[in-house]
Amino acid sequence: MYGPTHKAGAVASLRNIKTPSKVAKLVMERSGHVLLVGEGALKFARAHGFKEEDLLTEKAREIWLKWKEAMSDKDYWLSPDEKKIMAELRPYIEHYGTINCLAKDGAGVLAGVTTTSGYAFKIPGRVGDSPIIGAGLYVDNTIGAAGSTGFGEANLRTCSSFQVVQFMGQGFSPEESCLKAMQVIAEKARLQPRLLNEDGLPNFGHSFYAVNKKGEYGSAGMWSGHRYAVHDGKENKHKEEAYLFKRKK
Ligand code: ASP
User: Fold this and answer.
1) What is the pLDDT of residues 118-156, one digit of tens each?
2) Considering 19, 98, 114, 158, which one is annotated as catalytic?
3) Is pLDDT at 231 greater than 90 in this prediction?
């Protein structure tokens, strides 16, 4: 999404293209649309010279096979050791690959991108928050830019990147705005018991990132213990995210 034109481009359910965010940028620059999906997105990518590649790695195939085998003891996929395998898979289930990147240049131009392959083991056809403008990303050149990683459905249900930008528009700092949008997500999670841990708190990780028109920036997580990367024009650094809840040791 590009601040000065308030144009956005996105693709979803696009298979076999290694750099979907570049296709999304072309949707913004070379089409009058915002979101292309599936076969249409692939044709658009091909028309612009993108090459199709098999993106399935051997490691991902093995992880998928183990997951398939360990999912149920009532089907015909048999697992050598279900408990051990589920423990082995946990990092792949709980860690996702999304990147949100926001930028402000010297002339005050704001822009942002969010890119992901989405959750592992989702239902085929599922579209997450990353390509949905307002959910996984939002830019308003007069106010600021925001984006997210984490539980996409929570962003889709609360239009949260849009909310972060609106909070900045009301005068809250980027960090405060991230925390306020996170609070909304935590409150809404209370309506769904399956999203809560044994203490009644959200059982998922989530992060927001934001930068405002002045170049002030901030980030907040649902849980403590996360960092984000910033380049302030002089140097690259890691900063601690603010958070709603402190993780138990
Ligand atoms: N937000 C992404 C999704 O829901 C996942 C992630 O951030 O890793 O697909």
Assistant:
1) 888 889 999 999 999 999 999 999 999 999 999 999 999
2) 98
3) yes
What's the total number of domains in the chain? 3
Q: What is the residue-wise DSSP string for 100-142?
A: EEEEE-TT--EEEEEE----TTPPTT---STTSBTTTEEEETT
Q: Is residue 122 part of a domain?
A: yes
The pick from 149, 222, 228 for probing ligand 1's pocket by mutation, whose C-beta has the most ligand atoms within 8 angstroms, reads: 149
Whether 74 and 155 share a structural domain = no
Whichever domain contains 107, its CATH number is 3.60.20.30
Is there a domain that residue 175 lies in? yes
Whether 18 is in a domain gets the answer yes
What is the number of the ligand 1 atom nearest to the C-alpha of 152? 4
Q: DSSP letter string over 210-225? A: EEETTS-EEEEEEESS
Is position 227 within any domain? Answer: yes
**Do residue 196 and residue 73 come from a single domain?**
no
Instruction: Count how many residues are written for the chain.
Output: 249
Q: Are residues 65 and 112 in the same domain?
A: no
- The answer to whether the CB of 99 falls within 8 A of the CB of 116 is yes
Pocket-testing residue among 11, 116, 127, 219, ligand 1, by greatest number of atoms within 8 A of Cβ: 116
pLDDT tens, position by position, 181-197: 999 999 999 999 999 99
Q: Is 114 tagged catalytic? A: no
- Cα(248) to centroid of ligand 1, in Å? 24
Per-residue model confidence as pLDDT tens digits over 20-34 = 999 999 999 999 999
> What is the model's pLDDT at position 185?
98
Say how far apart CA 205 and CA 182 lie, in whole Å: 11
